[in-house]
User: Fold this.
Amino acid sequence: MNGAHTSIPISDDDPKAPLLSANDSPVHRSGSFRSTAKSIFNLKNLYVLLGPILCAGVCYFVKLDGPSGVGSRNMLAVLMWVFTWWLTEAVPMPITSMSPLFLFPIFGIAAADEVARSYMDDVIALVLGSFILALAVEHYNIHKRLALNVTLLFCGDPLNPPLLLLGICATTFFVSMWMHNVATAVMMMPVATGILHRFPMGSSRSAAETNFCKAVILGVTYATPIGGMSTLTGTGVNLILVGMWKSYFPEADPISFNTWSFFALPMALLIFFIFWVVLCLMYCPRGSGPALSTHLDKTQLKRELDALGPVAFAEKMVLAIFSMLIFLWMTKNITDDIPGWGALFDDRAGDGTVSVMMATLLFIIPNRKQEGEKLMDWNKCKKLPWGIILLLGAGFAIADGVNKSGLADILANALNFLEKAPYLAVAPAVCLVSSLITELVTSNNATTTLVIPILIQIASIMHLHPLFLMIPGAVGAQFAFLLPTSTPSNVVGFSTGYIDIPDMIKIGLPLKIVGIAAVSLLMPSLGTFPLLFLFCFSILSLAL
Assistant:
């Protein structure tokens, strides 16, 4: 024996095992108990319990009159549960978004099959196809090539900072029209910071250079949501609005891609133009060109563009598929007098039909890089934002539940006092409230899901077309410009370190005011006077 002590493990069934091991002392057990108690009784777990508690409280204490009182009460209880989890994020938002799948059948609101159908319809198909195409654009660096070409085009000789800023912001606006806001911000911000890395860092940077850096980051940050509101695919908020319109008013004409663009694009262009003017006035004064020109060398920009190499076959095919998708979206339904290609299929094809069909081509066409390799494969699609897709489905399910349970009628009766309120007083208030909820409480998608059912009832009481309030509520939820935590694009911009909260408020506050005024004043006229579309384009052309 060498005297070394060898520990022999003793099984729990050994009769010679000590009843109290050294690691199971009272002190150790006390510390373990406190640790366990702390892990159980924390704020997040209390929020988890808060949802069911509020739900039970509504079921027990709230009594609603009418033949559908029980169903309406149950729907209100489910809303309390779901929105509590959404607002506190006690449970991950995608998981909360699936809760109607078990809550609705349990509370007798809808059958399981009916609820499940809300999670896969034409709008969800539109989102899926668009996201897959966006991943293809990102994979082949098409966005980076576009940004470098635009920077070279707008750089000017000599350098014109406002014009360059317009080029960067306009590129972001355009990309955000076709891709989700989060994807656009994540893709375009490295392009913007790549340009700014040419400037000195820290205290060696001049005032003109500092202001231009802030202007570029603020421009990309805010051009993202402004561009996103102009098309259906730019943001989930627009898709939630369209889905709820279809759910509440199935007999009405659906809001197609073409219809929404014809309405929202002029408004977004007007807001974008004013935003660019404000940005230039505050951060790009005249005479700043010479101080910046030494760092923005066209030769270096061309060198980076050349490093990407010639446009490959795969890039050309992705661009061709994307262009074909836009063309098919815009021509499915043209006017009442000029039917689009959708008439060939008795209007059975939707925007989602086109989106998925074009996305499918990405998995069929070879990329000519490796033998047998296609433009896209399923491994590249693992970054699909399933959380957003589930949130959309939850919004549609809630809209159906509020309508079918009778809760919508009870809300309408409770809002009778708004019958004589003027539209120009209610619409700005709706925009402001939606934007503040997004700023301070939850995401713009969740805000839209929360306020749209209420706004439909308010519009009914005021004898207004529902879209007159639904659209300000949905678009207003996208006017969250003041805080870095308000939206993911704000987070992306703030995380670069070039801007701080006072900068965001300095630009965000006037932008919020302009946005609310534009939506409130133009909403009654945009659908009536199509020439406003040309008017907005003429303004932008004059600016260029």
